[in-house]
Amino acid sequence: MSLLHSQLPQYQFAERHQRLVAASPQAVMQALAQLPQWQDPWVNRFIALRELPGRLAARLGYTNALPHKPPFGLHEFTLLAQGEHERVWGLAGEFWRSDYGLQPIADAASFAALTCPRLVLGFTVSAQPDGQTLLSTVTRVHCPDVASYRRFWPYWYLIRPVSGLIRQRSLRAVAQLALAQQGSHLGGDRQAGG
Asked: 3-36+73-184 has which fold?
């Protein structure tokens, strides 16, 4: 059983993306560890646009959590599980709200105990016969009741194209990091060897 499935076996929404990387699985996994610090100018613009109504509403006196927080990013996710070829992050809240309605997650056990909508973002790497690595990402969302499902599904279909673009850009960023790390190790080996 995959770590992703163990963290969220039931779900109503899913999205999958993948990319071949000309680096070893170990280099790709090392690059994945850096993903929560990843910054991308296009993603930052999408997030700013997504948060604009909530931030404007806060300036007009409406209550939400956005004015007290930095823009949304991968730093909001909690690492739930990791293995030799897989890493899974989690997020929980009322994602359709202007401030995302995020719930704190201490660890995998607290994530499993939550009764609000939950999202997992999983990455897997697998060596390919041609020496490349297949890097895949899967996003799953579980809504625990009919009310949250009805609120989430229009939001999902509205943001899904941008979400897909963000996932593709994150895969590209991981690939670039992995190639850079592998290149620096190979360069160091060449220098050490003479």
From this structure: Alpha-D-Glucose-1,6-Bisphosphate; Chain A, domain 4 (3.30.530)
